[in-house]
Each structure stands twice: as structure tokens, then as C-alpha cells.
Amino acid sequence: MADKITTLPLIPLRGMVIFPEMIIHFDVGRSKSIAALEEAMLKEQKIFLSAQKDIETEEPIKEDISLIGTICNIKQILRLPGNTIRVLVEGEIRGKIEKYTKEEPYYEVDIKELEDEDIEDKKTEALMRNVKKTFEEYVKLSEAIPTEALMSLEDIENIGKLTDIIISYLPLKQNKKQELLETYELNQRLQKLLYLLNNELEIVRVEKKIGTKVKKNIDKGQKEYYLREQLKVIQEELGEDDELNKEIKSYKNKISKAKLPKEVKEKALYELKKLGRSGNYSAESSVISNYLDWILELPWNKKTSDNIDIKKAREILDKEHYGLDEVKDRIIEYLAVKKVSNSIKGPILCLVGPPGVGKTSIARSVSHAVNRNFVRMSLGGVRDEAEIRGHRKTYIGAIPGRIIYGMKKAKSKNPLFLLDEIDKMSNDFKGDPADALLEVLDDEQNNTFRDHYLELDFDLSQVLFLTTANRLDTIPRPLLDRMEIIEVSGYTSEEKFHIAKDHLIPKILGEHNVSSKDITFSEGAIYSIIDGYTRESGVRELERKISAVIRKSITEMLKKDKKLINITVNSVTKYLGTEIFTYDEIDKRDKVGVVTGLAWTGYGGDTLPIEVSVMEGSGKLELTGQLGDVMVESAKAAYSYVRANASSYGIDSKFYKNKDMHIHVPEGAVPKDGPSAGVTITTAIVSSLSGKKVKHNVAMTGEITLTGIVLPIGGLKEKSLAAYRMGIDTIIIPKKNEKDIKKIPKTVKNKIKFILADKIDVVLKNALIGDVKNGNKKS
Ligand code: ADP
């Protein structure tokens, strides 16, 4: 038979030898050993344990480690104070080191497995019986080994196994044990064992003799009394027994009262039994009580009663949030469908929009509207499947995953569970969290969701899941397919004004225990905070600024002993300093080669100036400003388009040979990508090559093809809000986006003129000053 070779991390053992079949724990502290252990946990949880020859050696080299050791399965690991790990292992088979394959950061070895031979001859049989008999005698005499040990031997037929188990009970010196481990020839092992056993037996006999003599000298009653007293003191000192018993009793009580499902109850009682055996203060007992606490705190059967009254739900949503009519309509429709079908199955709602537009808070309102408990769990930065599904109990400091954690917080099995930022999950080598999440959201499977830590099925089928995201393009496709998207877009200044006045200010005053009669805001003050101190799609910064103003005015009230304060534009300047943003931020001059584009990111819309500069040279094209791949391609397409059509714009058609061009998108720290800057770049290139100025009050967005067709873009509403905030009055947009104009708030439409362009010529005609076609001749 070919030798079986396994490659495993190695830990050198100090002062102990582990045999196959042996279950034992030991502590690991040396960093190399910890590294080996961690590596083993990542793989199949097997490790090679071999005794170091001298117990004193702090950092054993290869020569210090015995060649023969045992391949072990790691059963449990636990972190103890002081960077030590307690490991519980079970010996599997002898092994011999063939080769060291790695020495840093831990030892890794190729091991030949040493299987016990299967011999059936009379000599072996005789030896075996002899060993068994001697061991029986030894157990009866020694008192150090429980007689149950004998029973456990009865069923074992394999001779190798039997010898190893007997060896593990004997109080042999380490070198003797190692010798037995290294004797893998069975007959020899039996002979050596028999010799050692007889030796041990002799020793106990002598010990007994001495013992009986001493005993005779002490009065029996006196001795017992003495021992009992001593035992009491020891137990009291350790707080043992009593405390463990109390703990077990209290768990038993809790388990019987907890109305757990059958399977869960059985598991809990099973663990409780283990707790009884584990002994107080053992590492295992703390793992078990932790686990029992988790089981007892989860809402296996607790439910709140649902109440989907559509009319009332709408009232609650309206009361708690200003505007967002479309969002509320969609949510109410969703709830109505659930109510009629009397089930919460179906797609999961996903609220998508920039930060601070109220996605989380509207989800909370929905929980009020349907009378469910609310839990929120952010998935931002989750990379590992185990964060969703938990770590197995064998891992150091293992806890359940975020879903079960959330359910514990929810305190009912039918909460509204908000999964925030699902676009910010990523994956690494430890598995894709999106897969685990898919199972969580799948109503066909989620009634038996299994967390690695719990090792029990948990029913998630009655949870109402909602999700939020800043953007759609980073949500994994299979997840996206399970969801119904509701867009929540940014607010205009007027909308922000109402949100501030009716919601944010009363809420913040309430938090400070101040009546809204004592501190009042003038209309101008609110607008000045919105326009002068914040520039955002949502209202998060606005909330912070209002909070700052309120805190400062409370301080002033106290200092100056005022009863009432009215906050005006002047007091805002006093509290917040001079305005950070001025309304007319766009440059009021028309320039050559500078065009205002419109961008849309996870944070909302923004203006994006694009600059092109042309100089004498040899046809080099330079692109700067942290542009993403798609944007670079779009710039190249724009360049080619202008080159192919140069003559029709009155541009020197040799520019690609005798001019260098530099395209730059300022604010280099902000990464930019996407194709929607195509028309902006084209306009800037034509302007810089033809020398025509660009109108300063115009902004634009649109993708361009090599033939000059303008293609539609996303995020029109956010983009136009951004233009509106910057004081721009004309936006050129792709004709195919015409349908989106109706979603844009009236206040914006009243101020901004939208020009629809199907071809780039329409863009150029409206953006450049002067006649574009053959412009050079006329100018
Ligand atoms: P998001 O989850 O979209 O990032 P939040 O829900 O955290 O935003 O909202 C930020 C703050 O703004 C919260 O205090 C929220 O109550 C408030 N808010 C946002 N939109 C509205 C609105 N339309 N009406 C009332 N308050 C709002």
C-alpha cells in the first residue's frame, strides 16, 4: 500500500504526549504555535502534535522536535486572558515527519500516516489478554482511575486502539510515553506496555501497604471528619459546586419557562448536561453558558400582533415625513398588497438614494405604521459570509452572525428588519456575504435559516425585510433581482425648509427639552442655514447645523438669563460664522474651453467643471483628474468625434498632429466615472480648438457616440437639483430623458430651462457663443 502523506501545521508539545483516541486540552502561548493553530482552523481543523525533546527549550528548532507524533482533530478553541489559547483536541492517528515544508511563520510538515497493523495471532491475543487483566487489577487498586474506564474498554476490538487508550490512563513519564508512541509495531508495543503496567502495579501495591499502615494509626472517624472539613473549606474557597449547581438550576428553570420549540429545547438541555460535566470555571463552561444565553434570549416564538390599517399607515407616514409622496405611495401599495394576500412573501423593498434623504427614518415610520418592532443592521463593510451567518462555536470568541444578532435585538420574530447600505458589501476569500443574504431574503428558504454558531434552524419567514442603498450599480445582480426599487431623491431648498421647520427643529428642541415657543426660527434664518452652510442632497448636515444653533442659543439663554430667543439671519451668522457657501458660485464670465457638466454619485448630484487646454505640440492627448476607465473612453470618443468632424466646426483638421491637448476635471481627489460627461468634454474640446466661448449659465449632461448622437443618462433629478443649487439657469439634456422632466420639482422647473438634444450639434449651438458651423469664417 502506498504511504499516505498529509501536509499539516505542527505544534511542538511541552511535557506531554498525545495518543490516538485521546481527548485532551492544553494551552498554546508561543506565537509560532498560535500561527500554526490559526492556519489549521482556516483549513480542515487538523494539526500535527509532536513532543519537543526538552521541555525547557523555548524556541525549538527542527532537531528539538520528535519525529513521531499524532495527527489530531481540533475540537474546540478558546481565547484565554493574556494571549493564550486553550485547545481541545482528539488524537486520530500516529504520524511520522517526512519533511519540513515550512518553518516560518509556523512549522508545516509532510507526515506519513502510521496505521496500526491488523494482526490476529495467538501470541498477540495472549499478550492482549494479559495487558487487559493487569490493567483491571491496576484500576481496582489505584483509585486514581474511575472504574468506568474499564467499561469503556469492553467494546473496543482493535488492539492498537486498546493499547493506546490504556497508555493514556497510566501516569508514565514523558519519555516512556514517547517511547510507546514511537513503537508502532503492535507486538512490541504490547510487550513494553505489559512490562510498564506490571511496574506500575507493583508501585501501587507498595503505596497501599504504606497507606494501610498509616491508616491504622489514625482513628477512622477523626480522619473522615478532618477530610470533610477540609473539603468544605476548599469548596467554599473556590465558590465551586454550589455556584455551578445554582447556575444549572437557574438555566433549567429558564429553559422550562421559555416555550422553546422542541428541537431547540432538546439542544438546550443537551448543552446543559454538558455544562454539568464541564466543572466550574472551565473554559468549556463559559462557552456553554454563553451559548445557552443566546438560545434563551432569541425570540423563537414571540410575536407582536400585526396591524396593517392602510389609512392609518398613510397618516403615520405623512405625519412623520414631509413630502416624499411617491415613496409613500409605493410603500402603501406594497403594504396593501401584503394585507390583501395576507402574507409577507414577495419582493423586498429597496430604498435607493443619497445619504440623509430619510431612507432609514421612513423605514422606521413603516414599522410604526404596521406596529412591528424595528431593527436596523448596517451591511457597510461586510466582507465575510460569517458576518451574516456566524462562526462555528469552535472558533475563538465565536458569536452568531448579524442576522441572528438583529433578531435578538428585535425581541420578536416578526420585526421590520432594515438592512442598511446593501450596496456597500463586498466579498473576499472567505465567501460571499451576498449569497448568505440571498438565503435570508428568500421566502422559500428563510424559515429554516441556519446560523453556524447556533446550529439550529431559525424561522425568518415572518420578518418584514427592507433594504437601503446609495446606489444600484454596486448591488450584486442576484440580490437586485429579488428587490423592488424605490428611488428617494434629494430635496430642493424649499423642501428642506419645510423639513427643517416641521420636523428637524421640533425634534431637536424636544431632545433638549425646550418648548418650541421658547426658541423660534425666522424663515430667513432657516434658509440661510440651508443655502449658506450646507450643500447636500439630503438634510443630515442641515440637522447638525440646526442642532449647533440650538445648543448655542440654549447656552446664551442660560448665560444671559433670557426666557425667549428668536433666531434670525444675524444670529445664525453669529453662531455658525460667515457663510461657507455662497449662492452664486458659478463663475459669471464666459470662458473658452471650460464647460459645466453635471454628475451623479452615491452622494447625490453635483456640478462637474471640465477644462480643455490646447497648445502647440505633436498631437499628444493628456487626461487628468482621477478619471475612471469609462470616463477616459468617453473622452477619447469625444476627441475622435471632433477630429472626424473638425472641418465642419471650422477647426484646423490637422490639430491631432500639431497640437497637444490636455483635458482636466478639477477636484482631483473626487474619483469620477461614467459616460455622461461625453457631451461636456466634446463641447470643451470644440470650444478650445475653435476659440469660441462657452455660456457660463449653461450646464449639460449626456453620453455621446462616435457619430455625434446624444444618448440618455441617469439621475436627471439629482443633477438638476445640483444645477439649481449652483444658480445655473439652462441645462442641456439628452432628448431621450424628456420623460424624466416630470419628476423634477416645480421650483426647479420654474427657474431652469431644459434644452433637449438628440445630436451634439444641438448642444454646441446652445452652449457656445457665436455660430458653431463654420464659425471660424464668420468670427
Ligand atoms: P438616510 O437613511 O437616507 O441616510 P436618514 O433617514 O438618516 O437618511 O435621515 C436623516 C435625518 O433627516 C433624519 O433625522 C430624518 O428624520 C430626517 N429626514 C429626512 N427626510 C425627511 C423628511 N422628508 N421629513 C422629515 N424628516 C426627514
Compile the SSE list and pairings.
Elements: E1 5-13, E2 23-28, H1 31-42, E3 46-51, E4 68-80, E5 84-102, E6 107-114, H2 122-142, H3 148-154, H4 159-169, H5 174-182, H6 186-217, H7 220-238, H8 242-257, H9 262-278, H10 283-297, H11 310-320, H12 325-341, E7 348-352, H13 359-370, E8 374-378, H14 385-389, H15 402-410, E9 416-420, H16 433-441, E10 449-450, E11 457-458, E12 464-469, H17 477-481, E13 483-487, H18 493-511, E14 519-521, H19 523-533, H20 540-560, E15 565-567, H21 569-576, E16 591-592, E17 594-601, E18 604-616, E19 621-624, H22 629-644, H23 655-658, E20 659-664, H24 678-690, E21 693-694, E22 698-700, E23 703-704, E24 710-711, H25 716-725, E25 730-734, H26 746-751, E26 753-757, H27 760-767, H28 775-778
Parallel strand pairs: 1-3, 7-12, 7-13, 8-9, 9-12, 14-15, 17-22, 19-20, 22-25, 25-26
Antiparallel strand pairs: 1-6, 2-5, 3-4, 4-5, 5-6, 10-11, 16-21, 17-18, 18-20, 23-24
Helix pairs in contact: 2-6, 4-6, 8-9, 9-10, 11-12, 11-13, 18-19, 18-20, 19-21, 22-24, 24-27
Which molecules other than protein and nucleic acid are bound? adenosine-5'-diphosphate
CATH H-level superfamily of the largest domain: P-loop containing nucleotide triphosphate hydrolases
What is the CATH domain class of the largest domain?
Alpha Beta
Tally of individual domains: 6
What distance separates the N and C termini?
Answer: 94 Å
**Low-pLDDT sequence parts:** 775-779
The number of strands is 26
From the spread of the alpha carbons, the general shape counts as: elongated
Class by alpha and beta content: alpha/beta
CATH topology of the largest domain: Rossmann fold
Helical run tally: 28
Give the strand content.
15-25%
In percent, how helical is the residue content? 40-55%
